[in-house]
Amino acid sequence: MIFERTPAVxxxxxxxxxxxxxxxxxxxxxENTLPSMLAAAEAGASWVEIDVTRTADDxxxxxxxxxxxxxxHVVELPAEATGLPLLEExxxxxxxxxxxxxxxxxxLEDATDDPSRRTGALLLPVLRREARRRRLLVTxxxxxxxxxxxxxxxxxxxxxLTWLRFPLWHAVPAAxxxxxxxVAPHTGSCGFEHPDTRLRPLERCVEQAxxxxxxxxxxxxxxxxxxxxxxxxxxxxxxxxxxxxxAAVR
Length: 250
Description:
This protein has ten helices and eleven strands. By secondary structure, the chain is an alpha/beta fold.
């Protein structure tokens, strides 16, 4: 069991995507930064989600998009030139009681670079260290990364991310076949927003996922829809409105 209490509310990129003002705060925080993570925890999230990718000098930084805000490719720049937070700095500044969903953004170069330089290999020692002090979940769209980590990190739960037209009823057998512990679909590919939900109701997909030993982690439901996902039995929600979703599901 990945989550102590379900549905767990996971702060998306910290407090949420973009630049937001914490509840009761006077200054804004930017996604995928330590202040955003701390603000999410203060707002009541017991988990936060972070996006991790690698740079040209083999450092791990937090960034959702493959490019910097200036439009340069992150993997083509040294970490210092990106201006992005380093993963180790986030872990050092985040209290151990805050669990982390590490969303790994592999890069095209991982297909041909030496194995020791690939994103998964660089991430491995960091995850091993953090797994001794906090709860972790590692998610990715890249099955090859998840298979690599499955062999190297047997005690850390792994989840397959899916988006939009890749429906949950395909993702469940795929994740089970990969030997993972979770499936993490976007709301557009799993639930009430998907045009073919009538063919495979969300409740049925969740039931089958649980029978296969998989937790279901839905990302980006609104506060208004959160109770519907709770009623369908999902195990966690990655959300942009931490206070709103917490109020809706507690």
